[in-house]
Design goal:
Elements (H helix, E strand, L loop, with lengths): L1 H4 L4 H9 L1 H32 L5 H14 L4 H10 L3 H33 L1
Length: about 120
């Protein structure tokens, strides 16, 4: 919630300073979102573990370097920025999520194609 405070408009900030109930309600919304996000992270992490989906530290570094090259930034400085901000675990989790969903959806497509092929025969 503290991180989101800076994204509120001045009118919202004024409203929250004056109306403690509105502030509590907004804080509860953020708490629920955070709890759901943590639950989802655990589910994705477990699915990835069960399905053997992994992302190495080297893959994370390569992705960050690629991002830096695309945006014309120094790759080492870009990596260091993410490291200093403590973002490397979040980036790795995002890459695991992407790999997992890609595998799940591609497998589903392959199974549908195989099923259609069997019916045609």
């Amino acid at each position: 919630f503290r991180n989101a405070w800076s994204s509120f408009t001045p009118d919202d900030m004024k409203k929250f300073r004056e109306d403690k109930d509105a502030l509590a309600k907004k804080r509860d919304e953020y708490r629920k979102d955070a709890e759901n996000s943590v639950r989802l992270t655990f589910i994705i992490d477990e699915l990835a573990r069960v399905r053997g989906v992994k992302v190495s530290d080297q893959e994370v570094v390569q992705a960050i370097y690629f991002e830096a090259y695309r945006s014309g930034q120094d790759p080492k400085a870009h990596l260091e920025m993410y490291r200093n901000q403590g973002m490397l675990p979040a980036i790795k989790m995002s890459m695991i999520e992407e790999k997992l969903f890609s595998e799940l959806f591609n497998k589903e497509k392959d199974e549908k194609k195989a099923s259609k092929k069997e019916k045609a025969e």
